[in-house]
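Dear H.,

Thanks for agreeing to be a second pair of eyes. The structure we're designing against is below in token form, covering all 512 positions.
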């Protein structure tokens, strides 16, 4: 929530509360999201794990589950987004999202914290009917609600054995949707009815904390006329303006033309900005929710912002998407107050696209990473081989527990006293999990024996004057539809980028 000083820039601040933001996906760690009738579906990877459990014959659900009648003893009352309901024994809050509850499978090193069942309420931001694949809606009574109805599907494309939703209309006219996803339940329809039967409206709930519909969201009033002395910059299809004394920082300036981000600082080091062409271009029908909206630049079909003051510093995040083209984010860190807020609004008003913004590349358009691997230093003879599930890598001998894996994964760290933290991880994701094969704008491709394709994207976190971090990620699709993910974190110097190319160049995939 922005400060009181920002009222002239962002509109009615009292309508936005931090609690509403808990129902939003954390943008900086944003995986690919599906949208179901206006509801963000969170269970793609979770249900991949569910499938593995079912195939292995494991029992997912704890004792205490019933299938008919009132909620059995041991169920717990929980509350979120204006609804209270009872959940069975074994449910825990889904802390990664800050909303919803899950039953977690038996905890072990193989599957970790993946969720088996999700019950998640979500405030609808517009009229969102149930999907066409759902059953005919069933009207039901929910204490405190103007009306309520639920529907479900058990078809093959359902998430879990049953995917359902309960829409609860409040007396104010707002609607809260409760998502219910059940896996490995003997009587899923009975369980759905039982969960629905425990729902009621929380009479003490403050409805102003709900996420706002887009046409009611606070507006960031952009400044379109550039102040004297501002200059226009360009980065991979996006132009933006900054004061004339701003310069590109040393790390950003040293990157090649394909680097996905440009970082700039003012002369005094108080203002910082990073413009990034996102690794994912997103589907055209994918929905997002913002703290603030602003007038999209010409040719854009999405524009939103978040402003977060903290201890004298205002952190701002802007996102714009060229219709049919690329998506960009602009991260800024400025002093809190009117001057910083006006600077953010002026940058937002200066955004424009060039023809390059229309160029969403194909796999063949990506630069070949092989020359970078060839230019990296030769791998020393003392590097050791570490093996995963059907693949292997070579790493320096001093890294923790060389050769050790965790159920087919590679999770290794450099010694902590050797300078900036370094780590490498690699894991195999089974076929059928969606959200892969996106083409990273500004990324690379690589031909690897035993793989259909491999894409690499890179980024860093130097824009806020912190210790530089280099991060790289390779996504490798194998012939059976599975994906091998290889990640690397290191410092900002060129030796760390070289180490990533050395490690990736040592990758071998079993083809037998």
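And this is the sequence the design step returned. I haven't edited it by hand at all.
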């Amino acid at each position: 929530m922005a400060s009181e000083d920002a009222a002239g820039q962002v509109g009615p601040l009292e309508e936005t509360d931090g609690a509403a933001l808990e129902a939003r996906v954390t943008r900086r760690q944003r995986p690919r999201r599906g949208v179901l009738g206006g509801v963000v579906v969170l269970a793609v990877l979770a249900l991949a794990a569910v499938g593995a459990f079912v195939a292995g014959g494991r029992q997912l659900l704890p004792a205490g589950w019933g299938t008919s009648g009132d909620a059995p003893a041991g169920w717990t009352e929980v509350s979120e987004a204006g609804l209270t309901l009872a959940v069975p024994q074994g449910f825990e809050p889904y802390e990664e999202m800050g909303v919803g509850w899950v039953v977690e499978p038996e905890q072990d090193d193989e599957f970790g914290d993946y969720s088996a069942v999700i019950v998640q309420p979500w405030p609808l931001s517009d009229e969102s009917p149930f999907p066409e694949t759902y059953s005919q809606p069933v009207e039901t009574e929910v204490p405190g609600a103007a009306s309520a109805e639920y529907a479900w599907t058990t078809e093959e494309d359902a998430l879990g054995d049953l995917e359902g939703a309960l829409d609860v209309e409040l007396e104010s006219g707002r609607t809260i949707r409760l998502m219910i996803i059940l896996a490995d339940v003997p009587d899923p329809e009975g369980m759905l009815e039982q969960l629905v039967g425990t729902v009621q409206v929380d009479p003490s709930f403050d409805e102003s904390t709900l996420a706002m519909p887009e046409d009611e969201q606070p507006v960031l009033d952009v400044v379109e006329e550039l102040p004297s002395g501002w200059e226009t910059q360009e980065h991979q299809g996006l132009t933006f303006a900054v004061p004339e004394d701003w310069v590109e920082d040393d790390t950003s300036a040293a990157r090649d033309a394909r680097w996905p981000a440009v970082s700039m600082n003012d002369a005094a080091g108080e203002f910082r900005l990073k413009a990034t062409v996102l690794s994912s271009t997103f589907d055209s029908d994918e929905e997002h929710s913002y703290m603030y909206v602003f007038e999209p630049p010409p040719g854009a079909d999405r524009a939103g912002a978040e402003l977060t003051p903290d201890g004298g510093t205002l952190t701002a995040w802007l996102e714009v998407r060229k219709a049919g083209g690329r998506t960009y984010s602009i991260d800024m860190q400025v002093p809190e107050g009117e001057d910083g807020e006006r600077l953010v609004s002026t940058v937002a008003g200066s955004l424009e696209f060039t023809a390059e913004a229309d160029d969403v590349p194909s796999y063949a358009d990506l630069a070949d990473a092989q020359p970078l691997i060839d230019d990296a230093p030769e791998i020393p003879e003392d590097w050791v081989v570490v093996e995963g599930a059907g693949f292997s890598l070579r790493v320096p001998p001093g890294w923790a527990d060389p050769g050790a894996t965790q159920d087919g994964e590679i999770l290794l760290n450099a010694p902590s006293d050797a300078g900036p933290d370094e780590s490498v991880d690699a894991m195999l994701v089974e076929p059928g999990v969606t959200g892969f094969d996106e083409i990273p704008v500004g990324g690379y491709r690589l031909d690897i024996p035993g793989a259909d394709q491999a894409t690499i994207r890179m980024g860093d976190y130097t824009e806020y004057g912190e210790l530089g971090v280099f991060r790289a990620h390779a996504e490798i699709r194998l012939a059976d539809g599975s994906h091998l993910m290889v990640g690397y974190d290191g410092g900002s110097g060129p030796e760390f980028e070289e180490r990533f190319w050395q490690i990736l160049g040592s990758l071998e995939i079993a083809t037998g």
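Two observations from my side: The helical segments are 7-10, 18-21, 44-55, 188-196, 250-253, 338-350, 370-375, 494-505. The chain has three domains: 17-211, 223-358, 363-509.

Warmly,
E.
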